[in-house]
Amino acid sequence: MNKIIICLLVISMILIGCSKDEIQQDINFSQDLISEKYLELNHIAGFKNEHNISLYHTLWILKMYKLLGISIPDYGSISRWILSIDVTEKKQREEVGLTGLPMQDSIQIYLEILDTLDISIKKSEQIILEIRKIEELIGPVNSDNVTEYSKLLNIYKLLDIETNKVKWSETYFSILKDNIRDLSTYNKSQLGVYNLMSNVFGDKKIHISSLDFRKISEAFLIKEISKAKPDNVVTIDQGLVKKALKEFINLNPSMDPQIMFYMLSLSEKEQIDSKDRKEFSKTFDALLIQKKAWGDNSKVLDLDTTYFSLEILRHYGKLNSINTTSINKYLDNYLGSIQSLETLGLGEMFSLRTLALSYDVLENRKSLKTIKNIVFQKMKNSKEENLDPVTLDCILTIAIVTNTEFNLFFPDHMKVKNKEVIDDLSVKKGKSFQEVYILYLYKLMSDELSSEDLNKLIELTSVFLNKEGGISSYSGEQPTISDTYNYVKLTSYLNLQVNEATKNYFGSLIEKGDVNSELITWGIIFNSIRLIKKET
Predict the structure, then answer these.
(1) CB–CB of 464/474 below 8 Å?
(2) Coil, strand, or helix at residue 431?
């Protein structure tokens, strides 16, 4: 029973708190949505993930702008935002995609961004204090921790602190020289960077002809310290660079931005033609998030944001303002990635539900049929016996949009096993509306819903019904959008008439502006209105 209560809370959180995307409630509502969030990218389209901020990706994309001689978009806005970050604070590091990264690596990324933008460091005292703590933690420099000290020395350099003022630098360089045969390319390159050894890599010639990330990284380091030494030649196949750049611009998640920057650095600048530069600029100018940063290429578009936006645009009759063919392609790609998985977890069920709702808005019956078959197969092959109510809620939504009988998704052994839940909830006194909703999900799943149950449902929901037509969690409380949405879904599936007042409830919320400005809230409102219209 405790598991059910926890899952009830999860459903509530899903419905009212999984997005913070704010939008204006005015006459330009749908147009603002398109101009601020809609994105077309090489045959796919969708709506941007506004929380996909990554300092790592921002660093290397900024470096590419500079290397290619392209003007950085919103330079002032980016600079102000970067300067506002306190990289020594854990919460702020997490907000910019540096979760789990060692402090020294996070600091180096931050300082390199400042260096790339040609802006002066602020809060350097805090950073130096953190570096001192790291030095104490890792102990005196030795051959085992020399790589960490290489990173720390680079940080001091980015802070414009002279090497001879770093108390351990002499010991550090001595260890590098004494262990030169065993050093990694990164540590060995330090001797060249600080001009302590000439021709540190010997007369080595390297040619890059494949996407060997390690070899490309080593070649970049060698070229960086060998620029004045013509005997050390590093070359790269220009066709490989051109192909990789195209993949990167097309947001291929396998193309790491750091490696892409290295490849561009290894190539001759004049070999990067103006067409490629324009494509790079066009794509990454558009991908700038909130005029301050870039994110992970694999997370540029967001499924939830795309669905809620589609629901809103449909309500306002603006679907023809976007490329629905390209959006279907994006959704199909997402669906294909789920289809290829051997097992499906709760996260994948959420995604299937959102995909189903999106396809329903776009009237893509073919893809809806694919989703139905995936869920059928998952349930058929599942070894689980106790189904959680969140999964049932996802499947109910899929049943509604695919016009499928809910109980057909579940094998008999699941129906028998979950009868205990029905018995427990049936006898419970003082049920919340969410508990009523869950009870009827289990009854539907087990194919135990009688005409008496339908009459009882009407009687039960009247207890939670507000005079304005909204449903509250408990009798006498203020109605909630999430409870009212669940009520509409249940009555829609059961072909019951929605209470007359409820038909006006969502419309009155819009007229009064009596809702918060989260994108998810508007999506739920407009989906509810659409379900109600289907019944009438």
Answers:
(1) yes
(2) coil
All residues at 6 or more sequence positions from 381 whose CB lies less than 8 Å from its CB, including other chains: none
- State which H helix or E strand residue 333 sits in: helix 324-339
| Tens-digit pLDDT profile for residues 105-140 | 999 999 999 999 999 887 788 999 999 999 999 999
pLDDT band with cut points at 50, 70 and 90 for residue 16:
very low
**Paired tokens of 479:** 């109605």
CA 15 to CA 189: how far, in whole Å? 53
The CATH number, out of the four listed (1.25.40, 2.40.50, 1.50.10, 3.40.720), of the domain defined by the range 2-15+24-38+301-535: 1.50.10
Residue 507: C-alpha distances to residues 15, 112, 185, 438, 514 (Å): 19, 51, 65, 26, 10
Distance CA 409, CA 404 (A): 9
Q: Give the CB-side neighbour count of residue 473, counting CA atoms within 13 A.
A: 6
pTM of the model: 0.75
Cα Rg of the chain, angstroms: 29
Burial 97-115 (b: 16+ CB within 10 A, else e): bbeebebbebbbbbbbbbb
Sign of CA dihedral 534, 509, 475, 499: negative
Beta strands, E only, 154-225 = 206-208
At residue 293, the 3 state secondary structure works out as strand
Distance between CA atoms of 500 and 530, rounded to whole angstroms?
15
Residue entry with tokens 């199909």: 332
Q: Among residues 478, 467, 457, which one has the least CA distance to residue 500? A: 467
Q: How confident is the model at residue 294 (pLDDT cuts 50, 70, 90)?
A: very high
Kindly report, residue by residue over 139-195, the tens digit of the pLDDT: 999 999 999 999 999 999 999 999 889 999 999 999 999 998 888 889 888 887 777
Give the angle subtended at the CA of 396 by the CAs of 390 and 397, to the nearest 5°. 95
Structure tokens at 169: 């630098």
Counting Cα atoms < 13 Å in the Cβ hemisphere of 96 gives 24
Return the H-helix or E-strand segment holding 83: helix 75-84
How large is the greatest C-alpha to C-alpha distance in the chain, in angstroms?
90
- Nearest-5° angle of CA 286, CA 288, CA 291? 120
Do 466 and 472 form a contact (C-beta atoms < 8 A)?
Answer: yes
**Which of 323, 264, 274 minimizes the C-alpha distance to 44?**
323
Check if the beta carbon of residue 359 is closer than 8 Å to that of residue 368.
yes
Distances (CA, A) of 398 to 227, 352, 353: 61, 8, 6
Q: Specify whether the CB–CB gap between 317 and 34 falls below 8 A.
A: no
Rounded to whole angstroms, the Cα distance separating 477 from 253 reads 48
Q: How confident is the model over 340-350, as pLDDT tens digits? A: 888 888 899 99
CATH 1.50.10 domain position(s) in the chain: 2-15+24-38+301-535
DSSP calls for 12-53: HHHHHHS---B---STTHHHHHHHHHEEEETTEEEEB-TT--
